[in-house]
Amino acid sequence: MKVIILLITVILQFSFINDPINKTNVKINPESTLVIEGKTNVNQFYCNYNTSLLNHAIPVDFLLLDNRKMVFNNAELKLKNAFFDCGNQIMNKDFRTLLKSKTHPNIYINILEVEKQSDKKLSAELKIELAGVSKQFRIPVTIEHTDNKLSVKGNIEIDILQYNLEPPKKLLGMVKVDNTINVLFNLSLSTL
């Protein structure tokens, strides 16, 4: 009986070893930019996100592996579709309709992991949810440290057909939106 109690005690002690998960809070600074860029057969369009509305702390939990890789848990950025400005009300309405904003009012971007490639380059794995459909991407990202802030820049190319989204057509189909959009981001981050 003593052996069983000793064994249970040892197992319980090892079960409560310090958690290797790092926790922090990140703030996206107002000078950040996030733009969705698209093309039609006639012109280009840009939908700018109002990043000044991202003024809250975003909790980030991560595990650091070999000082080269960070694996994240629940590092999620929620973007409200209504906070994108495409330049005029008609384009804003078309953009929100495209993203099925009535039933899916937000875009979710989850950082899954980042891996250091060099001092200023990372490879990031993201999961992006648009209109209720999630897809994973691996993209190159550049970083720069300035004034106690971290600048993170990158571009995500998305085929909207993969998200079961129908590109809008205007003027009886004469103006067609290309299936590919680019999400361009230049985020200034601070830890809290």
From TrEMBL:
One family name in Pfam for this protein: YceI
Domain Lipid/polyisoprenoid-binding YceI-like per the UniProt entry, residue ranges: 73-188
Name the UniProt record assigns to this protein: Lipid/polyisoprenoid-binding YceI-like domain-containing protein
